[in-house]
Every structure is written in C-alpha cells, then in structure tokens.
C-alpha cells in the first residue's frame, strides 16, 4: 500500500505523462492486462484513458486493471487512470 505522501509524489511524476493505453467498448481483457503489465515493468508509472464508448465505469476499469496487473492505483481523474508498479528488474522511481 502507498502512503498519502507517496501517492502525492507519484501524481506529480505522472502529471506530464501522456496516456499510453485506451480502454474502449470491449472493456478490460486478458490481452490488455498482459500488455499493461509489460509496460508497467518498463515504465513503472503509466496513464490509461477510458474512452467515452466504454460500457464500464472508470472506477470498474481501474479496479479490474489493479487486480489484473497487481499494481497500485495512484489516481482516477475524469476518464484517466494512473497506475504504479515497481519494476522487478530495474526500479527507477525512488519513493519518498
């Protein structure tokens, strides 16, 4: 679990990032979870956008991604989800 201070730090780090994944009308599937997990291993901190045509709520998508990737939910703002998972091979983000 992340502390409030760590989440605040990660939100600041994620501010300049662009979303690299989009969840559409098909919702969250295994293939998407696998690719997001690989991206988290490389980047540690990513943004995911939930498109307007998605049938699921943004909170449901966020919880499905957190469960599937075993990551931490940093923030949900509007239709954007910020996820964090420390890299096993090369950790680059040092949490306070």
UniProtKB/TrEMBL annotation:
GO molecular function: RNA binding
Domain CRM: 1-96
Coiled-coil zones: none
A UniProt-annotated Pfam family: CRS1_YhbY
Name this polypeptide is given: Putative RNA-binding protein YqeI
Keywords: RNA-binding
Entry keyword annotation includes Hydrolase: no
PANTHER family with a match to the protein in the record: RNA-BINDING PROTEIN YHBY
Organism taxonomic ancestry: Bacteria, Bacillati, Bacillota, Bacilli, Bacillales
């Amino acid at each position: 679990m992340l502390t409030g201070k760590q989440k605040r730090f990660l939100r600041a780090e994620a501010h300049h990032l662009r979303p690299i994944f989009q969840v559409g009308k098909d919702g969250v599937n295994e293939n998407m979870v696998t690719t997001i997990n690989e991206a988290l291993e490389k980047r540690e901190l990513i943004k995911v956008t939930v498109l307007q045509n998605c049938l699921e709520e943004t909170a449901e998508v966020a919880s499905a991604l957190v469960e599937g990737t075993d990551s931490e939910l940093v923030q949900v703002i509007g239709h954007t989800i910020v996820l964090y998972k420390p890299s096993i091979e090369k950790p680059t983000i040092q949490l306070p």
